[in-house]
Amino acid sequence: MKLKKSSFSIKPNYRPYFSKTVTIVFTFLIITFYCGCKTELQFPKPDVSNINSDAPILNLENQFFISDSLILADSLINFANQQPEIADLYFHRLLSLGDIQNNKFVESAILLFNNPEIIKLKDTINLYRNQFEIELNKLETGLKYFKHYFPNKTTPKVFTAITEFGPSAFTLDTLVAGISLDMYLGSKFVFYPSVGFYQYQIRNFKPEFLPANTLKAISQAHFPNNNKISNFINEAVHNGKLLYLLDVTLPDTKDYIKIGYLPEHIEWCKNNEGRIWGFFIENELLYATQSNLYGKYVNDAPTSSGMPPESPGNVGTWVGWQIVRTFMQQHPDFPLQKLMEIEDGQYILSKSKYKPKQAMF
């Protein structure tokens, strides 16, 4: 299928904790900022003061930098025995240090944690310690909201670490979640371009993106995409549901942080919502099953193919997010657990009555 050329014109500027069923009622409030910005939905903040964190977030980024090889070896083995799931995810799967029971594991770990470049990376991370503490506190509150809305879901053990520029957040099933602090050192950190990251990715490598990235990874582990039919609308709505979970678990977080945009990208999408929707309809993408056609609109990218260069990437996910939000506005008593269980994106689209005013091309 050949996409039609667009005539866009831009407008100016997890274990059970409770046995009883919890019914979630969402009340949406629209607020207008006096600065003239577009409105954003504001989400409720339930009382989670009686919900305790399962365990404190483990900070591993400083733990294993021990110059004495024998002491370091003992520390590694003791940690692996005490936290086998975290050790498996971090040492074996992320750092590829080999089987923990193998003697070569200790040798590889000693080389890694005595590497001068890794020590410099650790020292740089420590310069951001205060900022990380602020964001980790937000994450802990978000995890409490998650437990509030999903009392029968397991909340994972969470740890922070150095991964040599690995995934910004990652999980082992629903048991463990890890955070790569070396992926949040600011958009001006000199080594990101040399590692091979693009500017549209680097712009999000800031501490304030940490809670959203981590909660999104945890949500993906609990609610994987099991759609039997892989097409644009199913992918877009699934992604939109994950972002909606960020709406309710991080109610004070700006939309651009949740989706990984710049603030002006959110404004662009709002100003051109009808044109975006019309583009997908005009090019018959809503039910397209060829991932090479629709994949570029539901994944991160510098811009969206066929749209103006000012457009952000991932606009299909943004549309899916608006569909889910509209659905929940239309059905405010709809349980969040049930929403996440619906795999049919077309069902949510139909029931949402989402229909922005379509612009003509």
Short characterization:
By secondary structure, the chain is an alpha/beta fold.
Walkthrough of the structure:
This protein has helices spanning 69-82, 84-94, 103-113, 116-127, 129-149, 191-195, 199-202, 210-222, 232-249, 255-259, 263-271, 273-282, 291-294, 315-330, 336-341, 345-352, and strands at residues 29-31, 40-42, 58-59, 157-161, 169-172, 176-180. The protein has 361 residues and is of the alpha/beta class. The protein has two domains: 58-222, no CATH class; 232-352, no CATH class. The strands form two sheets. Strands 3-4-6-5 form a four-stranded mixed beta sheet, with helices on both faces. The chain has a two-stranded antiparallel ribbon with strand order 1-2. Helix 1 (69-82) crosses helix 2 and helix 5 packs across helix 9.
| Global mean pLDDT | 88
Oligomer: single chain
Rg over alpha carbons? 22 Å
Q: What ranges have pLDDT less than 50 throughout 5 or more consecutive residues?
A: 1-38
> Can you tell me the overall shape?
globular
Secondary structure category: alpha/beta
Count of helical stretches: 16
As a percent range, the share of helical residues equals 40-55%
In what order do the strands lie side by side in the largest sheet? Answer: 3-4-6-5
What distance lies between the first and last C-alpha atoms, to the nearest angstrom? 18 Å
Order of helices and strands: EEEHHHHHEEEHHHHHHHHHHH
How many E-type strands?
6
- How many discrete domains? 2
